[in-house]
Amino acid sequence: MKIADGVTSTALLTDQYELTMLAAALADGSAHRNCTFEVFARRLPHGRRYGVVAGTGRLLAALAEFRFGEPELAIVSKFLDTRTVEWLRDYRFTGDIDGYPEGELFFPGSPIVTVRGTFAECVLLETLILSIYNHDSAIAAAAARMVSVCGGRRMIEMGSRRTHELAAPASARAAYLAGFDATSNLEAARTFGVPTAGTSAHAFTLLHSGADGAHEAAAFRSQVDALGVGTTLLVDTFDITNGVATAIEVAGPELGGVRIDSGDLGVLARQVREQLDALGATRTKIVVSGDLDEYAIASLRAEPVDAYGVGTSLVTGSGAPTAGMVYKLVEVDGVPVAKRSSHKESRGGTKAAIRLARHTGTIVEEIVYPASAARPELNGYEVRELRTPLVRGGEVLADQPTLRESRELLARGLVSLPWEGLKLSAGDPAIPTTFVR
């Protein structure tokens, strides 16, 4: 997996303290103790009623490239002893990983990922796992909230210019997982197969200005000549009413779409729809963009909008840029261990999880219990196991779900939530999590 120009290893996408802990553990002999680490979120971000598991596919790809070659060893040898450097030279993860399937919902305390192996090999994966899951799950949760209120209209991810260049494709992937239809990011298409879409920029309209004034018609004509009448014209560079009239004059009533990127989008969408219909362009779509989030999208649900282009709010998690997941040691040589720090407690022992649903499909509860114990007896509910095997003996298992299959899983999951779980207002998690000792 290419990280940057000429760089393929993911081993340095980590925190130095993982390597210093490794060095100390190798020195005192504890490095080879069998351990279980778990990934979970103690709580959901403020205002969220569910989380979305995203990033699994990216993690499994990154795990295969987690190797220390000579360039990586040259960096870590600056602060590590020779024994640790030599240990890293031959490193590969040989343990097991289980996890909630990508696209699954999660709630506070859900054991989203379980990593088993020696302390040495597991501790090195903390930052890699958390950085991928925390980013992608935050974006997917924000995107899912937007999709749930868009009324089935087309959703386009347009946030590449508002995030890090290497985060942009991952953001597009997470948005597509959550139900977005397309992205403007072409690397997401190449790397993950996400469908793409694009419209036009104000710069293109301004390009056709001259000393004698603005030539909006010339810009529109050029775009239509190159891309066909199915293209989408940006009509708010100057005056929207004149822009719409000019667009239909140039392209005719079969114009594919117009985009509005500023102003009171609800009012403008109504005005533009009336104008388009009066001009005979009854099938011309209206695309709106410009600082949209789930609340703005919800407020536009009754307006004649055909598609939304979402950027900044999406790629920043719409106010929750991380999913709040942590990676904690929960078992050493079969003995449960737990952190007791105030407000940062963990629950010891390797865990399993099931989710209960009514016969209608509505989920009602998640139960987390010791993996070594029998599954709790339950009557009257449909029961579904949540954890699935991902890695065995360091090898990624075959037949992992495709991105499209994970997208379908999430769509089913959102439908299974109690109706109040889809509210945008702050409140308790959509379902409770019960912990069985």
Automatic annotation (TrEMBL):
SUPFAM superfamilies: Nicotinate/Quinolinate PRTase C-terminal domain-like, Nicotinate/Quinolinate PRTase N-terminal domain-like. Transiently phosphorylated on a His residue during the reaction cycle. Phosphorylation strongly increases the affinity for substrates and increases the rate of nicotinate D-ribonucleotide production. Dephosphorylation regenerates the low-affinity form of the enzyme, leading to product release. Residues 12-133 form the Nicotinate phosphoribosyltransferase N-terminal domain. The keyword Amino-acid biosynthesis does not apply. InterPro entries: Aldolase_TIM, N/Namide_PRibTrfase, NAPRTase_N, Nic_PRibTrfase-Fam, Nic_PRibTrfase_pncB, Nicotinate_pribotase-like_C. GO terms for molecular function: glycosyltransferase activity; nicotinate phosphoribosyltransferase activity. Coiled coil: none annotated. One of its GO terms (biological process) is NAD+ biosynthetic process via the salvage pathway. Keywords: Glycosyltransferase, Ligase, Phosphoprotein, Pyridine nucleotide biosynthesis, Transferase. GO terms for cellular component: cytosol. Pfam families: NAPRTase, NAPRTase_N. Catalyzes the first step in the biosynthesis of NAD from nicotinic acid, the ATP-dependent synthesis of beta-nicotinate D-ribonucleotide from nicotinate and 5-phospho-D-ribose 1-phosphate. This is Nicotinate phosphoribosyltransferase. It comes from Nocardia uniformis.
